[in-house]
């Protein structure tokens, strides 16, 4: 329980920071975040790119102004809150939702890592940190799911 809480707090904090960086850059295009260490190590460039919203997939399908084209950081905040709250709920239903959302976040993390490496050619430290947190949550949720699938012995 403590591990989940720590992962969710860290993930929510990183997601909120991503939202802050995106907002500040929108207000002032010269803004540079603390995570901008070099030309190719820039979270500001990543968060301000098309890929920083809707996984980069919503804009070409529904348009830049679509209500579904939300910042990835906002989705992250909701994800980590859900993980934290549902982590305290017992039972298979909660475990199934936790595992399903974790698998989805892991797939999204792999997608965005590929975008970082092969399209943006960037090293976003905040992004990579959230990918790691997502994989750790997936591991926790998988273990919980497996434990609930074991037959009870008397």
Automatic annotation (TrEMBL):
> Where's the Vitamin K epoxide reductase domain?
2-145
**Per UniProt, what is the membrane topology?**
Multi-pass membrane protein
Q: Which residues form a coiled coil?
A: none
State any single GO MF term.
Answer: vitamin-K-epoxide reductase (warfarin-insensitive) activity
- Subcellular compartments: Endoplasmic reticulum membrane
Q: Which residues form the signal peptide?
A: 1-18
One cellular component term (GO) for this entry is:
endoplasmic reticulum membrane
Which GO BP terms, alphabetically?
Answer: blood coagulation; vitamin K metabolic process; xenobiotic metabolic process
- Which domain of life does the protein's organism represent? Eukaryota
Q: What class of enzyme is it?
A: oxidoreductase
InterPro entries referenced in this protein's UniProt entry, alphabetically: VKOR (IPR012932), VKOR_sf (IPR038354), VKORC1/VKORC1L1 (IPR042406)
Q: What is its EC number?
A: 1.17.4.4
Any idea which UniProt keywords this protein has?
Answer: Disulfide bond, Endoplasmic reticulum, Membrane, Oxidoreductase, Quinone, Redox-active center, Signal, Transmembrane, Transmembrane helix
Q: Does the keyword Ribosomal protein apply?
A: no
Q: In its keyword annotation, does this UniProt entry include Metal-binding?
A: no
Q: Where are the transmembrane segments?
A: 70-89, 123-142
Say which family it is in: Belongs to the VKOR family.
Protein name, entry field: vitamin-K-epoxide reductase (warfarin-sensitive)
What gene, per UniProt, encodes this protein? VKORC1
């Amino acid at each position: 329980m403590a591990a989940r809480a720590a992962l969710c707090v860290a993930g929510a904090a990183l997601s909120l920071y991503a939202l802050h960086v995106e907002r500040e850059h929108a207000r002032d295009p010269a803004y540079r975040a603390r995570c901008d260490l070099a030309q190719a190590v820039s979270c500001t460039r990543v968060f301000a790119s098309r890929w920083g919203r809707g996984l980069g997939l919503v804009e070409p399908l529904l348009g830049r102004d679509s209500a579904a084209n939300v910042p990835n950081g906002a989705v992250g905040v909701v994800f980590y809150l859900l993980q934290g709250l549902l982590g305290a709920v017992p039972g298979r239903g909660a475990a199934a939702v936790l595992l399903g959302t974790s698998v989805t976040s892991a797939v999204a993390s792999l997608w965005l890592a590929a975008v970082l490496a092969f399209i943006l050619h960037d090293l976003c430290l905040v992004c990579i940190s959230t990918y790691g947190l997502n994989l750790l949550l997936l591991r926790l949720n998988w273990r919980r799911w497996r434990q609930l699938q074991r037959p009870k012995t008397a």
